[in-house]
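Bench log. Compound arrived from synthesis this morning; before running ITC I wanted a structural hypothesis for how flavin-adenine dinucleotide sits in the protein. Inputs:
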Amino acid sequence: MIIKKNKDEIISYLEDSSNVKGGKAETLYVPENEKEVLEAVKECASKRVPLTISAGGTGTVGGRVPFGGRILSVEGLNKIICVDEKRKRAILQSGVIISDFLKILEPKNLFYPPFPTERTAFIGGNVATNASGEYSFRFGCTRKYIRRIKVILSTGELIEIERGKYFASKDGYLRIAEKKIKIPSYISPPIKNSAGYFSHPEMDLIDLFIGSEGTLGVITEVEVELIPAFSSPFIMIIFLKEEKILNLLGEIKESKKISPLCLEYFDKHSLEFLKEDFPDIPEGAREALYIEEEESEDILEEWVNLMESYPVIDTWISQDRATYERLINFRHKLAENINNYFRKIKLTKVALDIAVPENSFRELFNFYKNIRLNNPRIETVLFGHIGENHLHFNFFPRDEKEREEVIKIYQEAIKKGVKLGGTISAEHGVGKIKHKYLEMMYGKKGVMEMVRVKKEIDPFCIFGLDNIFSKSLLRS
Ligand SMILES: Cc1cc2nc3c(=O)[nH]c(=O)nc-3n(C[C@H](O)[C@H](O)[C@H](O)COP(=O)(O)OP(=O)(O)OC[C@H]3O[C@@H](n4cnc5c(N)ncnc54)[C@H](O)[C@@H]3O)c2cc1C
C-alpha cells in the first residue's frame, strides 16, 4: 500500500468542489485491495484516529475534506471486475471513474443511467452521496441501481449487503453483523433526496449505506444494474423570450406522446454564465429548457407541435455526434463555470439543492423568483433538474453584508422547502456545510437518531467526522 506523509503529496486531497477551506491530514493511505483497506482501517480504529474517505473529489459539500486525522483514497481500487451482459449487471471496485465505466459499456450497448454531470466522480463517491444526474428524470437516482455493496467497518468486519436480503423488522430493527440497530423514526421523503441517513419502515439495509457520506464505513465494491442503451438520443435546447417555463413543464409532463430522458432548466443568469463558451446564445433569451430524447420522426413532430404556443426565440438541435457533444457541454459547462467562479471569488459554495414533491414545485419556483425580484443586487444563478422539481439556486455575495443577507434568504428558502414536504439536499448531500439545515428538516431528534446509528455502526467514531452532523454530537 502506498502511504504518503509529505505535505505536498497530500495537499490535493484536502479539498473538493465546495471550496471548503482549512483541510488538514497527517497521512494518506492509497490501498490497492480490500486487505490493505482493512489494514488502514484497523490501524486508525486501534488508535482512534479519524479517517476521511476520499474518491473523485467532485463533491460540493466538503465531504472528503479532512479536518485532522488520516485520509484513505480509494483511487487504487479501480478495477471493473465484470460486466455481465446477459444479466445486465456490472461489478466494480469503488474507485472506478464513472467516465471510464461508461466508455466500457458503450460498445456493449448497455448504459448506467444515474451518474452525475461531473464524470470524473467515482462509483463509490456516487453511492456515498446517492448521486443523480441528467437522466434521473426518466430513470431515477443511484439508489435504484445498486444491487450489492461490500463495506469495511471500523470494527474490522467486511460485510456484503445484497439488495432484497436484509430488511428492518416490523419494530424497526436492522441487523448488521452481530448488532441490532434501531432505524431512525423519521421517514425519508419519497422524492429525489440525499439528506442524511435513509430511513423507512421495513427498509432494506443497503439503503442505510447509500447516501451515508463516508460516515459508516469504506465501500470497496459495488454491483450495479444496467439498462439497454437508448436508440440515438438527441438534444434540443429551447430558448424562450418570456418566462413561461412552468406552463411548458406542465404540458410536457402531461403529454402521453413524448417521454424525455432529461429536462434541465437555465435562467437568464445561467445563460449569461455560458455566453463566453456559447456566444450564439440568442439575445433576449429569458430562459432555456434543455431536453434529451430518443430520436424518431414522430417525436420531433410532437415537440414542434407542443412548442407552437410558446414564445420560442431559437431552438438548437443536435444533428450529429459532434453537435450532440457540443450541446452536452452546454449543460456541463454551467456547473463547471459556477464552481470556478466560487473559487475565483474565494467563497465556499452557497447553493440551494432543494427538491419538493410535484404538487409543490410551482410554489417553490415562484418563491425563488420573488427572491430574485426583491434582491436585484445579489448575483444569483438558477438552473438544474426542473423535471424532478429540483433546482440549484446559487448565490454569489460580494461582501460580508451581502453574505449575511444571503444566509437569511437561504434559511427562509430551506424553511419553505421543508414546509412544502421537500428535502434540503436532493443530490449533493449534507457534508460539512449543511448541518443546521438538516436539523431544520428532521429536527434535533432526527439528527440525534442518526448520531446513534453512526455510533453503533462505527463505535470508534473514526469515519467521515463532521459529515452529515457535527462531530461534537458524537460525544453526547
Ligand atoms: C461540475 C460538477 C457537477 C456536478 N453535478 C452533479 C450532478 O449532476 N448530480 C449529483 O448528484 N452530483 C453532482 N455533483 C457533485 C458530485 O459529483 C457528486 O456528489 C459525486 O457523487 C461525488 O463523487 P466523488 O467520487 O467525487 O466523491 P468525493 O467528493 O471524493 O466524496 C464524496 C463523499 O463520499 C464519501 N465517499 C467517497 N467514496 C467513498 C467510499 N468508497 N466509501 C464510503 N464513502 C465514500 C466521501 O467521504 C465524501 O463524504 C457535481 C459536482 C461538480 C463539481
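What the model suggests: DSSP finds 13 helices and 20 strands in the chain. The mean pLDDT is 95.
ITC booked for Thursday regardless.
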